Amino acid sequence: MNSAHYRFEPATDKVARRITKMRPSAVRNLFAAAQRDDIISLAGGMPDVSLLPKSAVRKAAKAAVEKQAVTLQYGGTNGVFETAQVFCDIVRDIGIRHKPENVIITTGAQEALDLIGKTFLDPGDICITEGPTYLGALQAFSAYEPDIHTVPFDAEGMRMDLLEEELQRIGKGNPRLKFLYTIPNFQNPGGVTMTPERRKRLVELSHEYDFIIVEDDPYGRLRYEGGHCLPMRALDDSVIYLGTISKMFAAGLRVGWIMAPPGVIGKINLAKQGTDLCGSMFDQVMAAAYFTETPWQKTLQRFVKTYDTRRRAMLAALDEYFPPEVTWTHPEGGFFVWVTCPPYLNTESMLPEALERGVIYTPGTGFFPDGKQGKNCMRIAFCYESPENLQEAIRRLAEVIEDRLELYRAFIEAGAIKE
To answer: Cα(42)–Cα(382) distance, rounded to whole angstroms?
Structure first.
């Protein structure tokens, strides 16, 4: 029999419709370039785990090893109860009172986003996000084929006036409207923070138009200036609150959480059962040990001081090198700055030139559901590189932008395009 008859090819014509509508992560696609020694990366929002004391990591890992009867076994879908209690304790000082039985521990906050989509979205349902928003959330939600509406932000967070206009278009009592997803603290990619007044108004609108607020708070502990803003979960028990240890401890452990009302937790539990049965018991116990047996607040302050130094270095370099035609946000915390170039510049087409100069960033289109908006924008991260590298990266990036601006001016002078 001819063995050629048994050649197997990928059955790409049989994949689900949802896969054809999903776009790859712009950040993930840049990871290979970011590993090169000659590249300064402003693309990824990676925490600097080198700042973690090895003694604290060792102590937390040892605690997990010593409980191997639990940590190497299957666990409950909601996660380790003691770890859930620890997470409830952690958020108490920022104003959230929550019971551990109403917590689901997830494989990072990214799984939490997928579970939110899986639990609430049918094809054609409406969810609202900031525009731009976290590209990982767009990936997670798009798998369930919703209609994603975006609302712009300004320096004070999502604009409530534009949200109200969008809600009026959707209509009160619209059963297709399911939830609004927001990152109110040091938004990704914008770096902006929603004011207390807007948070209060958003809660009011959620009741008026009958939608759920999904509050994602991965960066809330990384504040470098300004005062604490109360989470919306502290204002209203109906808010679903997502958190993670990735920025406070270790992203590689992949531990996050969902805090929600009991009925919602029960539905998400069903969704998670079909996803992974349960998360890693080892990671959960290790995380709990870190937050109970080590001086994690002291380490967190080290993170805050280091990231703040890098943030200041980036903002100073932007002031020094970037042309006046370009604007950017001024984050009070988190990892990111959102840069807006003139509308005739395309940050996607600029990326190869930046790569040639030894710097990469994330183009803005990946942060919008249509993949078309934000062509003149980019996200740049200050969390991982040294202040010296950040300054050099911004200098190189400014050269790329200046070259494009000069080219545009030359076309104007030649009459090839109209200003």
So the answer is: 7
Q: What is the pLDDT of residue 1?
A: 46
Reported as a single tens digit per residue, the pLDDT across 247-306 is 999 999 999 999 999 999 999 999 999 999 999 999 999 999 999 999 999 999 999 999
Confidence at residue 16, expressed as pLDDT on a 0 to 100 scale:
78
Cis peptide before 189 (omega within 30 of 0): yes
- Give the three-class secondary structure for 182: strand
Q: Has this prediction a pTM greater than 0.90? A: yes
Structure tokens belonging to residue 62: 């040892």
Q: What is the CATH superfamily name and number for domain 3-51+298-414? A: Aspartate Aminotransferase, domain 1 (3.90.1150.10)
Sequence ranges of the domains in the chain: 3-51+298-414, 73-293
Q: How far apart are CA 231 and CA 98, in angstroms?
A: 13
Identify the sign of the CA torsion 347, 193, 97, 178.
Answer: negative
Those residues with Cβ within 8 angstroms of residue 312's Cβ, 6 or more apart along the chain or in another chain: 387
CATH match of 73-293 with 3.40.640.10: yes
Q: With CA atoms as reference, report the closest residue to 220 among 182, 179, 261.
A: 182
Mark the ranges of the chain whose per-residue pLDDT is less than 50: 1
Residue-level pLDDT at 166: 98
Count of CB atoms within 10 A of residue 262's CB?
9
Give SS3 for 257.
strand
